[in-house]
């Protein structure tokens, strides 16, 4: 989209792309005058196109030393309300699982808020103790940023028993293994993303949960539950492995006025209730 637009406007250098020109591109895509088929594009599609154009111009400025004239405005997007899982629904999913492996995956995703990829990369040695507290060492976080994730004592004991049993049954250092064996060695292969995703979907169906359930929803559910119970957003940022509070404030705007009211009353009336 960007190159045909530049050709039509006789733009030959990045410095010529002013804010106004780039905004004209976005507006033309939304109303259809600049789309390939002459039809209006959705705001989500235009948002993706304009982000890509801005990323290219940032690269041209930083890596190629080009002078960039402007930056395109991204169309505003309606925020989706997250339909998170309750604690009771998470417990129902765990109860529906037939193996300790699957039960632990559900419980870990909810209690730690880990991403599925981070969980599947865990090894037995990642279960550690620091300062007398049980933690998981997440070595393969987003952007290769490692972090320590707190574990409740009960979950830590369950995970330790599972890790010890798995180590005796398989030489693999991965904590969560699939059901298939490697042809060459006969060892169980690590559980895959697609396998875990399918398992989570199936457990939700068996548990009678009608909403769409996927692994990342357990992460959202943990964060929502944490904030609704008065958890510190700065600590949540560290637990989830975000680099800033921006993702927290943008993603969890679905917390209701009732949540805000209850939290304020907890702060204002805390002493009186004790």
Describe the structure.
There is one protein chain. The protein has helices at about 1-10, 20-30, 45-60, 85-95, 100-110, 115-120, 155-170, 195-205, 215-230, 235-240, 245-250, 255-274; strands at about 125-130, 135-140, 145-150, 175-180, 190. The strands form two sheets. A three-stranded antiparallel sheet has the order 1-2-3. A two-stranded antiparallel sheet has the order 4-5. β1 (about 125-130) and β2 (about 135-140) form a beta hairpin. It is globular and about 70 Å long. The chain is built from twelve helices and five strands. α5 crosses α7 (about 155-170). It is mainly α. Among the domains are: about 1-60, no CATH class; about 85-215, Intergrase catalytic core (hpI Integrase, Chain A), CATH 1.10.443.10.
Quote the beta fraction.
5-15%
- Superfamily (CATH H level) name of the domain at 87-215: Intergrase catalytic core
Radius of gyration: 24 Å
User: How many DSSP E strands?
Assistant: 5
Helix-strand sequence: HHHHHHEEEHEEHHHHH
> Which CATH-level-2 architecture of the domain at 87-215?
Orthogonal Bundle
Cα end-to-end separation: 62 Å
Shape: globular
Residue ranges: pLDDT <50 for 5 or more in a row?
none
Helix proportion range: 40-55%
Give the strand order of the largest sheet, numbering strands 1, 2, ... along the chain.
1-2-3
The number of helical segments is 12
Average pLDDT? 85
């Amino acid at each position: 989209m960007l190159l045909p637009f530049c050709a039509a406007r006789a733009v030959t250098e990045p410095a010529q792309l002013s804010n106004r020109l780039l905004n004209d591109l976005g507006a033309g895509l939304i109303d259809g005058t600049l789309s390939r088929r002459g039809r209006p594009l959705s705001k989500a599609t235009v948002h993706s196109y304009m982000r890509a154009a801005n990323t290219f111009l940032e690269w041209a400025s930083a890596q190629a030393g080009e002078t960039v004239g402007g930056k395109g405005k991204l169309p505003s997007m309606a925020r989706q309300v997250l339909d998170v899982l309750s604690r009771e629904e998470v417990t129902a999913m765990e109860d529906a699982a037939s193996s300790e492996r699957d039960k632990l995956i559900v419980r870990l995703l909810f209690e730690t808020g880990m991403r599925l990829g981070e969980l599947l990369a865990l090894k037995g040695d990642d279960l550690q103790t620091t300062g007398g507290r049980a933690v998981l060492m997440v070595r393969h976080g987003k952007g290769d940023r490692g972090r320590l994730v707190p574990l409740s004592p009960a979950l830590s004991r369950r995970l330790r028993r599972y890790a010890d049993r798995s180590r005796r049954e398989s030489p693999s250092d991965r904590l969560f293994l699939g059901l298939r064996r490697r042809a060459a060695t006969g060892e169980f292969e690590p559980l895959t993303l697609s396998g875990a995703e399918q398992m989570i979907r199936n457990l939700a169906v068996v548990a009678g949960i009608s909403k769409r359930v996927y692994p990342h929803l357990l992460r959202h559910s943990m964060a929502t539950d944490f904030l609704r119970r008065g958890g510190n957003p700065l600590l949540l940022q560290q637990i989830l492995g975000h680099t800033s509070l921006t993702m927290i404030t943008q993603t969890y705007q679905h917390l209701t006025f009732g949540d805000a009211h209850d939290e304020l009353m907890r702060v204002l009336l805390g002493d009186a209730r004790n």
